[in-house]
Each structure stands twice: as C-alpha cells, then as structure tokens.
C-alpha cells in the first residue's frame, strides 16, 4: 500500500527504510533540504557492522495532502500540535493515521481529530539519527500497535506484511501498550538524564536503584497499576537489555534539545492532580529535567 | 592561650592562620608530611588579591595529648569516629573541646565524651584548601559558637580575643545555630551537587527553585520548624551572597571525595524515621548523592 511517514527523526528514518521494502513509502520531512538529501542519497541504515542504503521518496511536509492509504506520524509529542491541523484539513473524516508518540498526553488531542481510522503504536526499537539521512538501528525490538478508533483493516495488512527484522504486532488494548511504555519512559528517561548515566547503571548502582524503586512506586500509584510486579520487572528488564544505551532523554539533554518530559512526567503530574494525589518524586524529576533544559538554553 | 587545632583542611588552615595572631596555635595534621610542610613554609592565606604567610607550629595528630588549653576539632563529621577515642583517652574528664562540624549527627557522640567543657560552632566563612599549606578565604562570615556542656570561660576568652576580619560570636542556644546551618546545608549542598551548578543558580533557575522550595518544605517538616519563613529567607540569602560559589558538597563530588551527606541528609532521614514521617525528597537526594559517590569510586 501507499504509506506516508511524517517526521524524519530516528523513528521516521527507521520506519521508512524498512516499510519501503514492502510498500510504497513517501517520507515527509520538516525541511526541504532534508527531503532533497534523502531523495537523492537514500536512507543509510547502520545495524551493527552492516551498512545498507534504501531508496525512498521524500518530500517536505507541506506537500502532504493525505494521498496515501496510511499515514504514520513519528514526530515528538510536543510537535504534534503544529501538524494536526494539516492532518484534519485533508482527511475530512476519511483517512487512516498511525501515531507512534511516547507518553499518553496526545490521546486527548486525537479524540477530536476528524479522521476515519486512528491507530496507536509503541516502538521498542533502539535507534539514533546520526545525520539527516542516516539512522543507527541499535536494538531490535517490536512495534506494538492497536486500534484507537475505526476499523483495523489497514493495520492488519501492515502487521501481516512487516519485513524481516522489523516485526509489528496487533494488540487488543491500546491503553495497555501505551501504559507499559509510559512506565518505562517515566522511570528510565528522567533518571538517566538527571544522573547522566547509561540505562544499565540504574540497576547496577545500588543507590540509584533505590530511586528507581521509589519513582516506580509513585508512578504505579498514580496509574492505579494492578500488575505492579510485572511492570517493575519490565523496567528492570529494559535496563538490562539496553544496558549500554543512552536513553532518548539523556541524548536530548546532551544535545541541548527539548526533551519529551512534558508528555511523560508532565502527563503523570496531570493524572496525579486529577486524582488529587501528591507525587513528590514525579514533581521533583519534572522540575529537574525542565531546569536542565533551562540551563542549556543559556538563560542563566 | 594555647590552642590545638585538629585537621588541616580549609577550616583547620583558616582557623590556625587567624587564631595564631592572638594565641599560641599548634595545628595537628593527619600526615607527618603535611605537618612538616606547614612547619617549614607556614600557612599561605589568599584573600582576594592579598596573599599572606603565617608561621604556625604543626605536628602529626598522633602527638596530640591534650596539652593545650583549648582544642578545636575541624575534621569532617565522618572522620570524628577515628579521633574521638584519642580525645577521650588524654582528657580524662578535664580539657576543653570546640567542635566545628556540619550537621547534627555528631551530638550523640559528644554526649558520651568524658571531657570537662564541650563547645559547638558553626562556621559561616567560605574557604577552600588549595594545597597542603594554602587556603583561600573566599567569603568573610562569622563563626557562631555556643556551650554544649561545662563552663563558658575559655569560649568567652576566645570570642573576646578574635582577630580582625575573623569574628566569633557566643550564642545562647547551640541547637539554634546548628539547625540554621543544617537547613542551609541540607538544601544547598545536595541540590548544587546533584545539578552540578553554583549556589546562585538554585534561585535563578525557576525550575530548580521549585525543587529548593520542595526540599526545604520537607526539611522544615522533619525539624518541626516554627520560624519557617525566616529559615527559608536565610537559604535564599545564602544563595544570593555566595552566588558564584561551588558548595562544599559539589567540590567534594567533583574531586571524587566522600561527601558529608550522611551527617546532613542522613541525619534528617534518621530524624524522620524517629518521628515516623515520610521524607521522599530527602530520601531521594540522599540516595542520589550516595549514588554519585558510588559512581566515582569506579565501582560501575
């Protein structure tokens, strides 16, 4: 089928490279420079010792008019606001969108969207954008997807046709897959960014591990988690499997970029407020990451 | 009078340099190398653009036998355990000691000490040891002292004879002066060390400032503070006055040295436990600083 991919960060490049093997992908980028670069040189995928190049059609985002069967939105959650009006305008009640953002803050935006089918996904790959047309595939995971509204026809098609080494799964409950990822992101991302350490250090350093437990407990309380032990086991397992990785939030902090803290801890703070709960650790790490971002802006 | 000063860190060097102007000081050092260096070259004091040298008698700690009228103990709180037996052995119910440690964890050790007079003090000078016989006097404050047990004769003498630029005050309540310093240390030290910023950044960065408020509130709760606003004003005022200083805990962290977190946040955690209160922020920053120390040891 014809697939549009919005956003040429690590996830956008990764999905474009793989899905183009089975589908006709057009990658929409923020700048026309990047579109030209990808159009002329292809996407370079680095995977361990291997280096591959895949040809992909690329265009600047302004040219997206909903012409493809499925559009996959890979931009950060805080960038959604600026592209959703365009999605709405051209969809006019039709069309199919798959959102791959971290966190859960975007769900309330999607409810208002006049689109026929909306899918949600959670990406468990490790990937880093090395430059405008190069992505490093650091960890092979799966992409869990689910239906948010509408029918699942296109999603089933996508899951059935996923290329080798790039598995997609179709799950019954979108809340569940997003919550699972949210918890991992809420614990690992802020702590690694605050301590400036790799993921594995959170469980190897016995003092940092106490903070992992403390923050996880608070997140579990705010989310009214029933299967708490499973989720904690999942956090530890992600730390183990991605032991030498630097989390996306740590990488954002090191590069002086805006982080996704609003869609992760910011969302949990809102949840706590709605439920009239105090969440001192979540509040503390929200302010801490915001404070580091503020320092990087050179405002102090 | 004859004064012994135990410990040749920043505070030990500073007190030796100034008090020797009016008294006969012997400075006791941990290593005989440092004693020889100070004995032969004197103490170099750097104060703004000025550089002065003061001759002081220096000996290794093993030679202390309580021969002086007053002994001032300037070592860190966590080093007290190793020297108190020596103090006890030679004092035999007589003698006069002045303790200048941060925190309040050492008070329970002092109650058991068989010494006639025990004084406590809180140093509000900014000072940094540059090498074994050089100290930089970065901020001129006062040293607040008070009687813990015994009579105040020698302390009054010391306060009356303090040299110019090095004021000592005699205060009625030792709890009050230690609590005031403890609060400042409990908020400014761990946060500057965790964020790796100068003292002033804590109040200039609006997000870090929220954490200052959050941690201070918890400290105030644990200590059952009555004059909360005054103490908060004092914390802010210290951040302003020492705006470009790096706190002692930050300097310890940067130099890979053990910090005083046990005598500061560790003490507050015990207090919280005794009062059956939860103190999530204090717990968090205690573990965080311990975790950074652990990383520096190269254990991970």
TrEMBL record, chains A, B:
Would the keyword Ubl conjugation be found if you checked this record's keyword annotation?
no
Annotated Ketopantoate reductase N-terminal domain residues: 3-146
Q: What range(s) does the Ketopantoate reductase C-terminal domain occupy?
A: 173-293
Kindly give the Gene3D superfamilies that the UniProt entry links to this protein. N-(1-d-carboxylethyl)-l-norvaline Dehydrogenase, domain 2, NAD(P)-binding Rossmann-like Domain
Pathway note: Cofactor biosynthesis; (R)-pantothenate biosynthesis; (R)-pantoate from 3-methyl-2-oxobutanoate: step 2/2
One Gene Ontology CC term in the entry: cytoplasm
Lipoprotein listed as a keyword: no
Which molecular-function annotations from GO does this UniProt entry contain?
A: 2-dehydropantoate 2-reductase activity; NADP binding
Q: Which GO terms describe its biological process?
A: pantothenate biosynthetic process
Q: Which reaction does it catalyse?
A: (R)-pantoate + NADP(+) = 2-dehydropantoate + NADPH + H(+)
Provide the alphabetized UniProt keywords.
NADP, Oxidoreductase, Pantothenate biosynthesis
Q: What superkingdom heads the lineage?
A: Bacteria
Q: Which Pfam families match?
A: ApbA, ApbA_C
Q: What is its EC number?
A: 1.1.1.169
PANTHER family documented for this protein: 2-DEHYDROPANTOATE 2-REDUCTASE, 2-DEHYDROPANTOATE 2-REDUCTASE-RELATED
**Task of the protein:** Catalyzes the NADPH-dependent reduction of ketopantoate into pantoic acid.
| Annotated family | Belongs to the ketopantoate reductase family.
According to UniProt, the name of this protein is 2-dehydropantoate 2-reductase
Q: From which lineage does this chain's organism come?
A: Bacteria, Bacillati, Bacillota, Bacilli, Bacillales
């Amino acid at each position: 089928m014809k697939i549009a991919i919005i956003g040429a960060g690590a996830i956008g490049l990764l999905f474009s490279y793989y899905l183009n093997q089975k589908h006709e992908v057009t990658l929409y980028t923020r700048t026309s420079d990047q579109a030209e670069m990808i159009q002329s040189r292809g996407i370079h995928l680095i995977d361990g010792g291997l280096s591959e190049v895949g040809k992909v059609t690329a265009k600047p985002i302004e040219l997206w008019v909903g012409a493809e069967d499925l559009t996959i939105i890979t931009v950060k959650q805080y960038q959604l606001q600026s592209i959703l009006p365009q999605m709405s305008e051209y969809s006019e009640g039709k069309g199919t969108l798959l959102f791959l953002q971290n966190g859960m803050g975007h769900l309330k935006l999607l409810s208002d969207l006049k689109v026929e089918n909306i899918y949600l996904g959670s990406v468990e790959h490790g990937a880093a954008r090395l430059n405008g047309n190069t992505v490093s595939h650091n960890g092979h995971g799966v992409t869990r997807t689910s239906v948010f509204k509408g029918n699942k026809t296109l999603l089933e098609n996508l899951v059935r046709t996923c290329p080798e080494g790039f598995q997609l799964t179709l799950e019954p409950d979108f809340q569940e897959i997003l919550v699972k990822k949210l918890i991992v992101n809420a614990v690992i991302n802020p702590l690694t960014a605050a301590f400036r350490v790799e993921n594995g250090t959170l469980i190897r350093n016995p003092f940092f591990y106490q903070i992992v437990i403390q923050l996880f407990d608070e997140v579990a309380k705010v989310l009214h988690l029933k299967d708490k032990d499973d989720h904690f086991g999942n956090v530890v397992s992600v730390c183990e499997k991605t032991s030498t990785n630097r989390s996306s939030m740590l990488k954002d902090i090191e590069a002086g970029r805006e982080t996704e803290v609003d869609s992760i801890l910011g969302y949990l703070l809102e949840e706590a407020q709605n439920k009239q709960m105090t969440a001192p650790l979540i509040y503390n790490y929200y302010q801490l990451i915001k404070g580091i971002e503020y320092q990087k802006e050179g405002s102090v």
